[in-house]
């Protein structure tokens, strides 16, 4: 706890002390046998002595504080005891008031009734304990039987495993050699079958290649002859009328062109000039690359011949890439979308798929124009189906379509097909057709589509270009077909050799298997015996398994019964414990009522003793607090004395230092100043102030200073004494007693 802070008259005590110190210093300097060192030793010894007194006082204070704390704890404990004793006394008084003969008789009767309940509960616990014991005995017996059944099951399982292992070993011995031989035979037969299939496949490839060579030869010969004969020649009048119309599509020029073209009759005349040949009546696939090349070269040559007549020097081209693009476009935007361009009558169709053209042009990043013709569904020579399409049908369709585009394209089309053929660098007013490549494709309805692409390095549509020289193109097709035939024949020869080797391996494997059939009789007997043993072991295992399951079920049931009996026993024990607790409570009530006088007397005595103990503890606390106050006062006094001793020592050292360098007059003046301090403590401040002012006004007030010596020396001496007094005063007034805490 915090100790009281002592308040002292610091200024007065300090002044008196300072005066004594100065006097002692003067005396020390006056005496020739006493030195400054002796004075300092004396003051230092005083400091040490007073500090020892402080330490002793601090120890006494700590001991007193401990005594107060202990006494306070005793008071608290005694107070708690009084409270407890008071409550016990109140309870004893209430018990005494309730201790009537009627209440005692009633409580005694309740004890007797509860004793009967306890006896009954105890009997129930004993009986249930017997039930638990019996259930435990049954469970233990079931556990023994289950353990035995488990061991039997494990043994049977081991026998099955052993018999299985023996059978596996016997079967392995029986089938090892035979299996190897059988596997070899199977592999050989499989290889022979594969080789035979390869031979058959290669033979078919050779046959197909030979047929392709023959077909290609026929196509080459037929197309070459047709290309040289089937040309469309335009009259000078037609060319002139067409040029006039394309330059100025007026109604007059349109009528003049129509007059020269002679309408459908002249188209029929041109169509009838198509040279038919028996070699063209061969069924072909319109999407076959060979047929595609022949059709596109045929169509481009017809168009370029017309452009030459018209006076144009730029020719259209044909390429495999342009044909592939045409087939892809027609499938995607006509076949897949069920887009019938002409319909069933030629006038109920959907027309060009313009959205498809725009989308495909964006996909290829180029310009596309499309011409379409009746193709295989021509209304001139009747309708041909895709399944029975011949080379004659396809070539005639191309020839007829191009002729129709030239001479029978009036009405709403306004000769747009002819315009697409004879324009240069533009088609139907659209620029960007500076390098035109033609692709030909037939849709699923039999109509022909002629796709005009502007080929660039970026879209590669001009790559894999066809030679427009019919003989050169035909020879290239024939050479490719012959190379395919030679390759197919070489592959057939290799497969035939492989088949002969495979058949020899089959014969060797069959001989090996036959040689091993007579050496496996003993192994077969061992296998039969092992199988019999395995069957017996499995039967025993099934029997042991059934027994194990039965015993496990019995064990589970016995465990459940035991658990139920134990639960009932625990419930009976809980009931007994409750009954006993209530009986003890009733018995305590009877005892309290019967002994009410004795209990009250004991409670009264305990209460009085607790009060007496509290009184004693309170007195002890007061005495300890008195001792603590004395110790605190003594500690404060010792600390003051020690602080003054330190101040005296400091002043003595400072004064000695000053006086050692001054004159006797200076020391006398210092003594007089000290005397003034002794007379009135407040004079210290005035002296220091005067000394300071004198020092500051030394030049101006020279005549006012004492003239008993050198002016400078006297002023200096007085200043030193003043500084010493100022330091002493500052030390005293600045000192504050530290706060004692614990």
Descriptive overview:
This protein is mainly α. The strands form three sheets. The chain has a four-stranded mixed sheet, sandwiched between helices. It is elongated, with a radius of gyration of 69 Å. It has helices spanning 10-30, 36-98, 101-229, 236-247, 251-261, 263-271, 289-310, 320-335, 354-364, 391-407, 416-422, 470-516, 521-594, 596-659, 664-679, 683-696, 711-734, and strands at 317-318, 368-373, 377-378, 382-383, 425-427, 430-433, 436-442, 448-454. Strand 5 (425-427) and strand 6 (430-433) form a beta hairpin. The longest helix has 129 residues, at 101-229.
Features:
mainly alpha; four-stranded mixed sheet; 742 residues; 8 strands; elongated; 75% helix
* H/I helix tally: 17
Q: What is the terminal separation in angstroms?
A: 5 Å
The amount of helix comes to: over 70%
Sequence stretches where pLDDT stays below 50 over 5 or more residues: 1-19, 28-33, 673-742
Structure, briefly:
This protein is mostly helical.
Please describe the topology of this protein:
Layout: H1 10-30, H2 36-98, H3 101-229, H4 236-247, H5 251-261, H6 263-271, H7 289-310, E1 317-318, H8 320-335, H9 354-364, E2 368-373, E3 377-378, E4 382-383, H10 391-407, H11 416-422, E5 425-427, E6 430-433, E7 436-442, E8 448-454, H12 470-516, H13 521-594, H14 596-659, H15 664-679, H16 683-696, H17 711-734
Parallel strand pairs: 1-7
Antiparallel strand pairs: 2-8, 3-4, 5-6, 7-8
């Amino acid at each position: 706890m915090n100790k009281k802070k002592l308040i002292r008259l610091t200024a007065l005590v300090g002044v008196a002390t300072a005066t004594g110190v100065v006097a002692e210093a003067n005396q020390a300097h006056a005496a020739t046998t006493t030195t400054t060192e002796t004075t300092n030793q004396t003051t230092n010894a005083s400091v040490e002595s007073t500090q020892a007194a402080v330490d002793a006082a601090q120890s006494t204070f700590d001991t007193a504080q401990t005594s107060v704390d202990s006494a306070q704890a005793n008071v608290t404990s005694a107070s708690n005891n009084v409270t407890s004793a008071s409550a016990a006394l109140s309870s004893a008084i209430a018990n005494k008031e309730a201790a009537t003969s009627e209440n005692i008789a009633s409580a005694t009767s309740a004890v007797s009734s509860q004793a009967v309940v306890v006896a009954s509960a105890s009997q129930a616990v004993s009986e249930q304990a017997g039930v638990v014991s019996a259930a435990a005995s049954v469970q233990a017996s079931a556990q023994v039987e289950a353990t035995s059944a488990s061991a039997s099951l494990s043994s049977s399982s081991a026998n099955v495993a052993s018999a299985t292992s023996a059978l596996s070993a016997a079967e392995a011995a029986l089938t090892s050699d035979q299996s190897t031989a059988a596997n070899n035979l199977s592999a050989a037969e499989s290889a022979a079958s594969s080789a035979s299939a390869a031979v058959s496949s290669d033979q078919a490839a050779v046959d197909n290649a030979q047929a392709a060579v023959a077909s290609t030869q026929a196509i080459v010969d037929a197309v070459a002859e047709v290309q040289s004969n089937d040309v469309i020649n335009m009259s000078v009048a037609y060319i002139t009328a067409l040029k006039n119309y394309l330059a100025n599509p007026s109604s007059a020029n349109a009528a003049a062109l129509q007059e020269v073209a002679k309408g459908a009759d002249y188209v029929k005349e041109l169509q009838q000039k198509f040279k038919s040949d028996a070699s063209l009546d061969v069924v072909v696939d319109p999407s076959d690359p060979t047929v595609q090349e022949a059709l596109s070269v045929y169509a481009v040559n017809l168009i370029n011949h017309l452009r030459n007549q018209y006076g144009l020097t730029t020719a259209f081209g044909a390429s495999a890439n342009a044909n592939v693009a045409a087939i892809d476009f027609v499938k995607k935007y006509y076949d897949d979308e069920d887009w019938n361009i002409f319909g069933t009558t030629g006038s109920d169709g959907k027309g060009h798929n313009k959205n498809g053209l725009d989308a495909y042009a964006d996909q290829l990043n180029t310009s596309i124009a499309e011409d379409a013709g009746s193709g295989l569904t021509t209304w001139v020579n009747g309708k041909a189906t895709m399944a029975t399409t011949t080379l004659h049908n396809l070539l005639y369709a191309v020839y007829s379509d191009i002729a129709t585009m030239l001479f029978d394209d009036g009405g709403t089309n306004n000769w747009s097909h002819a315009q697409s053929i004879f324009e240069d660098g533009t088609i139907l007013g659209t620029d960007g057709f500076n390098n035109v490549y033609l692709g030909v494709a037939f849709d699923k309805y039999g109509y022909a589509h002629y796709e005009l692409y502007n080929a660039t390095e970026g879209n590669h549509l001009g790559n894999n270009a066809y030679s427009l020289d019919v003989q050169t193109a035909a020879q290239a097709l024939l050479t490719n077909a012959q190379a395919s035939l030679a390759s197919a024949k070489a592959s057939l020869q290799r497969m035939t050799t492989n088949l002969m080797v495979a058949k020899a391996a089959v014969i060797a494997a069959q001989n090996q298997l036959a040689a091993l059939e007579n050496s496996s009789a003993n192994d077969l007997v061992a296998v039969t015996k092992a199988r019999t043993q395995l069957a017996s072991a499995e039967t025993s295992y099934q029997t042991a398994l059934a027994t194990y399951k039965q015993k496990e079920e019995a064990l589970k049931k016995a465990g459940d019964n035991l658990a139920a009996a134990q639960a009932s026993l625990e419930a009976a024990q809980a009931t007994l414990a409750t009954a006993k607790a209530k009986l003890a409570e009733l018995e305590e009530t009877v005892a309290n009522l019967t002994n009410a006088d004795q209990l009250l007397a004991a409670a009264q005595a305990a209460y009085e003793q607790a009060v007496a103990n509290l009184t004693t503890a309170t007195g002890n606390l007061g005495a300890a607090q008195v001792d603590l106050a004395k110790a605190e006062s003594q500690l404060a006094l010792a600390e003051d004395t020690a602080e003054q001793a330190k101040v005296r020592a400091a002043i003595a050292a400072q004064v000695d230092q000053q006086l050692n360098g001054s004159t006797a007059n200076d020391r006398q003046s210092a003594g007089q100043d000290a005397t003034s301090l002794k007379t009135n403590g407040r004079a210290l401040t005035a002296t220091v102030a005067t000394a300071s002012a004198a020092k500051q006004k030394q030049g101006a007030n020279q005549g006012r200073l004492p003239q008993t010596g050198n002016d400078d020396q006297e002023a200096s001496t007085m200043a030193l004494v003043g500084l010493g007094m100022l330091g002493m005063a500052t030390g005293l007034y600045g000192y504050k007693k530290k706060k004692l805490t614990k």
